[in-house]
């Protein structure tokens, strides 16, 4: 009887150990998240950094993490933040750490959200406005404009707002 029970426990550990996601399942909508090592196109904005791990413990005291499990957890986290894209910045695989084999598979990433056309245009306008203000200040600093001319041009830009 004890031998049958031991065999079942060993078999269960083998089955669980062979699972690629280690029991982690994708939440609704997370399957649409793109995970890459490269930055997304310019119509995405950074939401923030994310750190996820899959696996736990030291050697036989815990369970061995996998890339699939960590990526699934990453997609779930990005989805929670209403993001669309994750850029992997660092991967740490399970490894020997001193006298312990660390079972964790860890991914560091940046989460991004795709911007609407209106958000892209607004960001472009803001960047353009900032660029023009810096150019004006440089002309003042270089002595091309007097303080009075600078103030007049600055007032014109501020009156126009973020357009042009």
Total count of helical runs of at least 4 residues: 4
Q: Report the portion of residues in β strands.
A: 25-35%
Largest sheet: 4 strands, mixed
Q: In which order are the strands of the major sheet placed?
A: 1-5-8-2
Identify the CATH class of the largest domain: Alpha Beta
**Poorly predicted runs:** 14-19
Question: How many domains comprise the coordinates?
Answer: 2
Helix share, percent: 40-55%
Q: Quickly give the CATH architecture of the largest domain.
A: 2-Layer Sandwich
CATH superfamily grouping of the largest domain? Hypothetical protein apc22750. Chain B
Q: Give the ordered list of helices and strands.
A: HEEEEHEEEEHH
Q: Tell me the number of strands.
A: 8
Q: Fill in the CATH topology of the largest domain.
A: Translation Initiation Factor IF3
How much is the average pLDDT? 85
- Specify Rg, calculated over alpha carbons: 26 Å
End-to-end separation in angstroms reads 82 Å
- What characteristic shape results from the CA principal axes? elongated
Structural class: alpha+beta
